[in-house]
Amino acid sequence: MPRTPAETLSGKRIVLAEALRGHAAVLVMGFTRAGGSACDPWARALRADPSMAGIAVFQAAMLEGAPGWLRAAIKSSMRKGLSPAEQDNFVILVQDGKLWRSYFGVTADQDPYVVLLDAAGQVRWHGHGAARDLEPLLKAALK
Questions:
Q1: In which domain, by residue range, is 9 found?
Q2: What are phi and psi of 53, to 5 degrees?
Q3: Do the beta carbons of residue 126 and residue 118 sit within 8 Å?
Q4: How many Å apart are CA 15 and CA 6, to the nearest integer?
Q5: φ and ψ at 120, to 5 degrees?
Q6: Average pLDDT score over the chain
Q7: What is the mean pLDDT of residues 23-50?
Q8: Long-range contacts of range 41-44, CB-CB < 8 Å, 24 or more positions apart?
Q9: Is residue 65 within 8 Å of 36, Cβ to Cβ?
């Protein structure tokens, strides 16, 4: 996983690779506005699912392509409707876009990308697309 410095929506500095180390986690990431919007159903479904108890759910957005002057407005819009805990687990990335695209194997910018990581940081499952179509596959990978 790239070791890109980032910031959460709550304003905390974070490096995802370090924050996820030692914990099973799911990372849901969007690379465009459409992809980011499609991440929300994933995050909501995973956080509400009792079978995901004990597995951290992080959401991330790549804003590298957004103009610097627009990023604050984008982040403000993303904060709406999120609890403080959800804001702590929502990461904004503004650099290393090529590395992250390679990590997720991005082929369709409008899709949300999802990885399931074990406590050692190894990818146990990955996919992209709608939560309703892929969530059962992710849950099967938990077993």
A1: 5-142
A2: -55, 135
A3: no
A4: 6
A5: -85, 0
A6: 93
A7: 92
A8: 41/130, 41/131, 41/132, 42/112, 42/114, 42/131, 42/135, 43/86
A9: no
Inter-helix orientation angle 33-48/131-142, to 10°: 50
Residue 143 in this model has a pLDDT that exceeds 80:
no
Q: Taking 80 as the threshold, does the pLDDT of residue 10 lie above it?
A: yes
| Cα 36 from Cα 13, distance rounded (Å) | 20
The count of structural domains within the chain is: 1
Q: Are strands 123-128 and 113-117 parallel, antiparallel or unpaired?
A: antiparallel
CA distances from 13 to 1, 8, 17, 49, 84 (A): 17, 7, 13, 28, 15
pLDDT computed for residue 133 by the predictor: 84
Per-residue pLDDT reduced to its tens digit, 63-116: 999 999 999 999 999 999 899 999 999 999 999 999 999 999 999 999 999 999
Q: What is the dihedral of CA 130, 49, 7, 105, to 10 degrees?
A: -40
Rounded distance, CA 61 to CA 114, Å? 12
pTM above threshold 0.85: yes
CATH for 112: 3.40.30.10
pLDDT given for residue 138 in this prediction: 87
